[in-house]
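Example for tutorial group B:
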């Protein structure tokens, strides 16, 4: 099963045992976060991992911040019935990344 967490981060059970990786790579997000936490300059990381970009590293930091806040990503797949009210259908037809669901 593959879940697109964001524009650059995916979770695929067939890649790296389902750990978050950068899309199109086998580079785990956690590896890059650990390098940043250890004080490795971004320029060195980009040189060592030429398939990722500064924007991808920034996305990894945003992902880590969301996890620290307790947010989780869940993929939903469902069919919209024509009997469901229009406003409900329109809500669910939007990109879910624009909607935040938090458990208080």
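The residue assignment follows.
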């Amino acid at each position: 099963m593959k879940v697109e967490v964001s524009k650059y981060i995916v979770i695929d059970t067939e890649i790296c045992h389902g750990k978050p990786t950068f899309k199109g790579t086998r580079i785990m997000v956690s590896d890059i976060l650990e390098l940043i936490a250890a004080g490795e300059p971004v320029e060195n990381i980009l040189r060592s991992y030429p398939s990722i970009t500064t924007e991808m590293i920034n996305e990894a930091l945003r992902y880590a911040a969301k996890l620290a806040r307790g947010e989780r990503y869940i993929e939903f797949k469902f069919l919209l019935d024509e009997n469901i009210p229009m406003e409900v259908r329109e809500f669910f037809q939007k990109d879910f990344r624009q909607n935040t669901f938090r458990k208080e």
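The domain at 2-75 is CATH 1.10.10.10 (Arc Repressor Mutant, subunit A). Compare this with the pattern of hydrophobic and polar residues in the output above.
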